[in-house]
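Input sequence (479 aa), recorded before submission:
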Amino acid sequence: MNYRPSTKSYWLLCYFICVAAVITIEIGQLKLALASQQQTDLEKFNLTQRPSSAQQPRLAPQAETPQQSTLEPSPTLAPEPELTQQAVVFARWLRYKGVGVTIQNCVTYLDALETLSRSDRLSCQDLYWAGRIALLSKPADLEQYDAAFTEFWAGCLPLGPIIPTAPELIALAFDSEEASSTAEVAAEQPDPRVRQINIRYSPQEVLRDKDFAKLTDQELAEVKELITKIPASAPTVNSRRLRPSNQATDTPDIRRTVRFAMRTEGELLKWLHQKRRLRQRGLVLLLDVSGSMSLYAQALLRFAHAIVCARQKVEVFSMGTRLTRLTRQLSVRNPEEALTGATASVKDWSGGTRLGETLESFNNRWGIPGMARGAVVVILSDGWDRGKPAQISEQMLRLSRVAYKIIWVNPLKATPDYAPLAQGMAAALPHVDWFIEGHSLNALEELAELISQNSVIHKPRSTTLPAVTLPAEAIAAAS
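Predicted structure, token format:
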């Protein structure tokens, strides 16, 4: 059976043949124009010629020991229009002599000469050192460069070694209380011949490892400012919603694939795919504001305020003798207003602790209904409790079943020979994924990094607990 093309296909083929012919003609004309322009430029500048030795006198031969010769005043070269052309020819002359000069080296040499020619006069030394720095790539070409420079740039005097300048006097002023008087005297009577450098230390490095309980009021204010700069990224989770993907996945995008096929008259040329969107996990902060945590509550509350202002889906509660929600108060951008409002809202600040009752209230009203499901729960407490340890163990078990991971932050863990002997801490520890300290700025940075991780298997070395023997009462309460 003979195939007979349709009229539409015939005219389409003719159209493509005409377009190809036009493109071929245009390319040929463009090549002829470029060749003509290149030939005109070569005839205009005549780059293949170099100055002969008859036009300019050669340099006098250098002494056998040029290192001991003194630097004589060299003649200067006024910037001429032909300087750029001569520089290009000099680069080609170096290449002819065996020096490896690339196009990039030549461009750098021209830029250096353009910068140097902005002054009133351009000396031979400027010409020599600009070429030596820009055109040479290895020390082995130095001897060939000197010979080529002497032969090409006739009229310049021999270049001797650089005369070292006088040493610069530098005075170091240390930032300390003992040297404060000396620095004041030096500031009152400055010496123009001496350059003074002030050496200062950064108190931030000292404050990073210092315990919050040992900070002064001024240091605590500086630490609060540093806490606001801690990066607070959020862990992510795949949502149920889908979005288009440029990579091949297990989920094809039927709607986009059919729509794309309609452009090719129904031919299915490409499969399009989609993948799940990423959303942030929820974060819940439970802050202990009892009397035993009063030295750490202000810094930890400032940390909670920084996280609330930095990301979404964050809830903050205070735990004492009752449970108080502080998310609305800490949503204010001004830190002082936010902390003042949060402190005023907590009626049991620096009071007792009932962790079992507050955890039960949180689970029944907010956590189990949905706030803690798939979220990261951070409990900031020392574990001292006046309630029943069995109640804490039961509520922590309920919370661990719905939360993505539970992080317990205990500032007392940083003390030497610490052991979780408190009944509340011993009852809650079996249901905790991470147990870290939160006594310093570095500890809070580790906490922020731990919150942003999507894994609950890997545990840092700081979470390793010492081998201790728990009392029988704590073991019975935890079981």
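Checked by second reader. Confidence is low (pLDDT under 50) at residues 45-79, 157-165, 177-188, 457-471.
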